[in-house]
């Protein structure tokens, strides 16, 4: 089996461009129009997909957690449940956004945080799913999503390799369309050593049939690029239109300028990696001609002179014999006079 996955009809494998996801999450602030503005901006930045989040908050949270006080600068309600309900988009709202995504030509998918949300997302017939790091050990939800037959991206923050293997085996027993994303579930990343991007290489060895990616919570673009070099072919970045907006994600999310830079850098990286075969390129021809040295006469040299080391100089441009040919000229006899700075060539010496 090849290491590949089709995401809404787009092939992703080791040879393709990096698949870039703009994680809108709840940064839309519960407003469909803001969500659509974000979708348009993500499309303009070159993202392949936008991701939302779906929760049935009453079943997702215990009563105690739902009713717990949540009054702070980022809160949209007096309790955590009220806060979450304010941000939640319903089926009709998500359908409106989905239609807009189709109109623009950008894929839309979602994380399902509970079983009821899978049912809602199935009504929308989203093309693929994300399983959040918080559900890395939730085999019940993993099986339900796997049963949809849709491709699945699974984030692996907060777990160890045993947890990741368990989740992968749980899903692939039902559905082999799985991509495994290295993730550090810190929002944002402050200690870069905790990103542990080398896990990308570990996953590539552990899961040879799976596309590997990065769910990136860095406030920047450099680590996504590093992950791509290591073999990640899916990158997810949190996205906002304004760092100052209310909410915990906005401060570390990429704005359109940052997302555009990330997409551009990842696209260039694919080209820059090349095929590993060292060759001279067309763009190098002119500068190398100007910079390279040729073997020339160090002074005026008479005909019949036997060439010695001191008879040569090495000067630009590189339109003559390169210096590595010097040993093939020493001891040869000149057939004619050679003025200073003239190219010394094999045609000017006697052949053995």
Automatic annotation (TrEMBL):
GO terms for molecular function: N-acylneuraminate-9-phosphate synthase activity. GO terms for biological process: carbohydrate biosynthetic process. InterPro entries: AFP_Neu5c_C_sf, Aldolase_TIM, PseI-like, PseI/NeuA/B-like_N, SAF, SAF_AFP_Neu5Ac, SAF_PseI/NeuA/NeuB. PROSITE patterns: AFP_LIKE. It comes from the Bacteria. Residues 294-352 form the AFP-like domain. It holds the Pfam family NeuB. PANTHER family: N-ACETYLNEURAMINATE SYNTHASE, SIALIC ACID SYNTHASE. This is N-acetylneuraminate synthase. It comes from Pseudodesulfovibrio cashew.
